[in-house]
Amino acid sequence: MKHENIVKQLNLGQKAAMMSGKNTWETQDIKGLIPSMFLSDGPHGLRKQLGSSDHLGLNESVPATCFPTAATLANSWDEKILTEVGYCLGEEAQALDVQVVLGPGLNIKRNPKCGRNFEYYSEDPYLAGKLAAASIRGIQTNGTIASPKHLAVNSQENRRMASDSIVDERTLREIYLTNFEIAVKEGQPKSIMSSYNLINDVYANENSELLQDILRKDWHFDGFVVSDWGGDNNHVAGVKNGSHLAMPGQAMTGPLEIYRAVKNGQLDEAVLDERVDELIDVIFQSTAGKNDNVTIDWDHHHKVAKEAAMRSVVLLKNDNVLPLANNQKVAVIGDFAQNPRYQGAGSSVVNPKNLESTMSVIDGYPLDVVGYAQGYTRGGVIQPELEAEALSLAEKSDVVLLYIGLDEIFESEGMDRSSLSMPNSQQQLIEKLAALDTKVVVILSAGSAIEMPWVDQVDGILHGYLSGEAGASAMLEVICGHYNPSGKLNESYPMTYGEVYFGENFPATSRYSYYQESLFVGYRYYEAAKKAVRFPFGFGLSYTTFDYSDLKVNDTSIEMTITNTGDVEGEEIVQLYVGKKDSQLIRPVKELKGFKKITLQAGESRMITIGFDDKTFRYYDVDEKNWQIEAGEYQIYVGKNVASIELQGSVTVAGVEVRNHNHENYQKHYFEKITLADFEELYGRALPRESQENQMVLHENNVISELKYAKSWIGRFVYGRLHSMLKKSEAKGEPDLNILFIYNMPFRAIAKMTNGMVSMEMVEKILLAVNGHFFKGVGGLIASFFRNRKEQKINILEQE
User: Fold this and answer.
1) Structure pTM?
2) With contact defined as beta carbons under 8 Å apart, do 738 and 56 qualify?
3) Which H, E and C letters describe 502-544, residue by residue?
4) Rounded to whole angstroms, how far apart are CA atoms 33 and 164?
């Protein structure tokens, strides 16, 4: 142990207390020996709360810079700007006496309806990992700790605390862990957050293979693992298998669990000592107790937020309308221009220090603004009078700047989207404006993919995603041509949701979520299935054009020449994809294995190099349980996006001969033929199945919304009230985060999220009541309440 001298000074109660939080956001301190760390949400801005604290961002927090969300920044493909944003986050954390920033989020966008996709980088693990590593390096520059999340296979919000991700081992390694592997190895975070869900029937937070064998041994992670808030299923199992910190604090409940487990032999004290040593090693490296006087340059951070937003804007369509000429007559239409949609909903909500709106900054740009019209209201209800006002204003202008996108209710932690459609009021407004002679440029605000049946009706489309507090001026810089857009999509945009592979099964509504698509996530499916998309992965236009030539491939890298063939300076993101046509393995047609963003003056040419690395040709061998390279010839594709390949070559690579496993439908891309039996064969063992009856016996890991099936009328009554409250919040167009959290929360989390007010024994009695034994359950609950109140008075720090 690194700190054996410190650990030996701690009694058993103190060591047990270290394994869970002191309160909602702080770790346990030991007077005179170990300081407390403060953890804060912060993927795109600090959320240190004032007064009473909560996990979901319901209470006011200290003002902080709101940077673009991860989904936005990923469109920049720019590791440098990710590092700059990370540095600013770390600096603000230091100034606010926050030691751990809970981010970045880098889960794979398995399905475009995941409600939290705005917080994640990409559908591709290579891109997500590289950008996360850049962010981590920035955050940790000054001693602040980054905690990338959520490890791992966390793909849906529905039932998120009790969903079991059933995924074959090769897909697990190549798609859902490669992103974290890159982030850990290249970013070297000092913390990592485990996910709520189970992976192949084992909770992530108590998965020894994941937290010990892969994270610590294979990836050489030397930090601490923190549970997601309320994600500590079995506290003793978590500590035993590699988790260090259960959050939020559970008063005496959590420490007593560990203390008694050691006393009764369920947990080896040597294992507890190891976890304490690993945790305090990071605490001593952190800024805890150092009280550095750091002054934040808010103007500089706002400029960084603007720069990041500019570099992330994606030009999706341009029929000779952009950039706008100086003093061009424009009508600004859309509620988002006045009340911007600039971040997602949930635990990542930032109280912005300096929020811009388009209408508050547009006077600083050389445009002749003829007026503003709201056009629509949030919620999708069509308002004819608002439409009429917008149409009248549009007829007075040369160009309409139409600000539209997804309302807050569409994208939130705690709920998945019901469709990829935009609100009806906005879609109808597009159609009516497009019928006029005035040119229409759509300015989109949304954190993930949407359906765009109206693409051919408008003249230009700029997508800013969720661009943070400075997104309004960043977009105007692009609109006016002061900055040439360079962003490219981090995800595929299907024509309709019906094109999403196994989309009908998302989100899983029962315990088990089958990852039946295997490796074919996002563009890997569309390319292999030869299915047209609205916009392919990596797509983005520019105000200039680029030519690719002179590809040279050797054993370690590729070289090529890129030329700016247009009239203005521009940035191009060159993308390297690799495939193997004669592979004996299940393989996508092509996979991203490298990228480089370069700036070229008009007419300039430059030779660039993209190197191969340890991930360029590898695959995970499920028989040998390690990484291998299949011997033979590989195709090298260099392109502007995955569907626009400009140069091709090949390279022969040494490796192993592969035995064909005869998963014919997967290997030959017969996607329409793939059945659950095919997936079961690929999975390698019998798939777990769940039957849902009209009434069921509820257990601690059933979610509270399953009270719908309770044997007792009281349980079904509670479900009815909860469901009614949820529907009312949806009708208002504002997500009720408390209701969403409760709806998908397992019963055990009642004990984990109430700061010791409810014990697991009390949860057991509640379950007894709703399972048809009302009086016995209520009587037991009362007795358990008094026992728990007595236990909460124990001072665990004094227990030897």
Assistant:
1) 0.95
2) yes
3) CHHHCCCCCCEEECCCCCCCCHHHHHHHCCCEEECCCCCECCC
4) 40
Residue type, 736: D
- The helix (H) or strand (E) run that includes residue 751 is helix 748-752
* pLDDT tens track for 414-458: 889 999 999 999 999 999 999 999 999 999 999 999 999 999 999
**Per the structure block, which two tokens stand in for 109?**
């966008």
Q: Which two tokens stand for residue 170?
A: 């090769």
- State which amino acid sits at residue 717: F
CA angle 112/113/118 to nearest 5° reads 70
Q: Cα dihedral sign for 136, 138, 139, 144? A: positive
The token duo for 729 is 């919040």
Nearest-angstrom CA–CA distance, 587 and 598: 30
Alpha helices (runs of H) in 384-470, residue ranges in sequence order: 384-394, 424-434
Catalytic residue status for 228? yes
Q: Which two tokens stand for residue 100?
A: 């751990």
- Please write down the HEC assignment for all residues of 679-703: HHHHHCCCCCCCCCCCCCCCCCCCE
Which is nearest to 750 in space by CA: 726, 770, 731, 732?
A: 770
Cβ(357)–Cβ(337) under 8 Å? yes
Phi, psi of 102 (to 5 degrees): -80, 80
Tokens standing for 443? Answer: 């300015």
- Of 667, 584, 591, 679, nearest to 628 by C-alpha is 584
Question: Quick one: average pLDDT of 126-150?
Answer: 97
Cα 708 to Cα 712: distance, rounded to the nearest angstrom: 10
Give per-residue pLDDT as tens, 289-340. 887 788 999 999 999 999 999 999 999 999 999 999 999 999 999 999 999 9
The Cα 313–Cα 471 span in angstroms is 9
Q: CA 229, CA 786: separation in Å to the nearest integer?
A: 26
Q: Which of these, 218, 90, 64, 213, lies nearest to 146 by C-alpha position?
A: 90
Using the structure block, give the residue that is written with the tokens 């001298």: 5
Separation between Cα atoms, residue 614 and residue 632, nearest integer Å: 16
Give residues with Cβ within 8 angstroms of 286, minimum separation 6.
37, 99, 100, 143, 144, 145, 190
How many angstroms separate the CA atoms of 377 and 561, rounded?
Answer: 49
Rg from Cα positions in the chain: 27
Locate tokens 């019928």: which residue? 435
Rounded to the nearest 10°, the torsion over CA 268, 272, 274, 280 is: -170
- Burial class of residue 4, CB neighbours in 10 A (0-12, 13-18, 19+): exposed
Task: Give yes or no for a contact between 447 and 411, defined as CB atoms under 8 angstroms apart.
Answer: yes
* Cα 398 from Cα 501, distance rounded (Å): 42
Whole-number pLDDT of residue 415: 85
d(CA 223, CA 546): 44
Q: Which of 41, 78, 168, 228 is catalytic?
A: 228
> What percentage of the chain's residues is helix, strand, coil (to nearest 5)?
35, 20, 45
Average pLDDT over residues 397-413: 93
In this structure, are residues 176 and 129 in contact, taking their beta carbons and an 8 Å threshold? Answer: no
Q: Cα(408)–Cα(471) distance, rounded to whole angstroms?
A: 17
154: nearest Cα among 119, 190, 189: 119
Q: Which of these, 487, 552, 569, 570, lies nearest to 561 by C-alpha position? A: 552
